[in-house]
Amino acid sequence: MFDQTKQIKLAGTVKEFQWTNPHCWIQVLVPDPDDAQAAPVEWGVEMGAPVELMRKGWKPRSLNPGDNVTIVINPLRDGQHGGLVLSVTGPDGKIIGRPAETIK
């Protein structure tokens, strides 16, 4: 489902952080880099289960709507606006929790 040979960096604004089973999700609004006047594109990025994220330092309030974040993902293979989260940098510029292994 996810292309683990590719990584994409998304910079945008959190629309919603869903702390739910079986997987948590971040809905993030990403501006179009080619057209500043265009509406932002909504990306749905999947994370692990809440218990897994808690072990990595995440909390239900780690992200809030309106937070500016940078997210590194493995994109969906079908090209849709989604992917699997590898790391999230919060509005303070610090990585939240312990990130997944990333390709160097």
Q: Number of DSSP helices? A: 1
User: Please, what is the CATH homologous superfamily?
Assistant: Nucleic acid-binding proteins
Shape, please?
globular
CATH architecture: Beta Barrel
Name the structural class. Answer: mainly beta
Adjacency order of strands in the biggest sheet: 1-2-3-5-4
Count of β-strands? 5
Q: What is the CA-atom radius of gyration, in angstroms?
A: 13 Å
Low-confidence stretches: none
As a percent range, the share of helical residues equals: under 10%
Ends apart, CA distance between termini: 21 Å
Mean pLDDT: 92
Q: How is the biggest beta sheet arranged?
A: 5 strands, mixed, barrel
Count of all domains: 1
The CATH topology turns out to be OB fold (Dihydrolipoamide Acetyltransferase, E2P)
Task: Please write the CATH class name.
Answer: Mainly Beta
SSE ordering:
EEEHEE
Please indicate the percent range of residues in DSSP E strands (runs of 2 or more): 35-45%
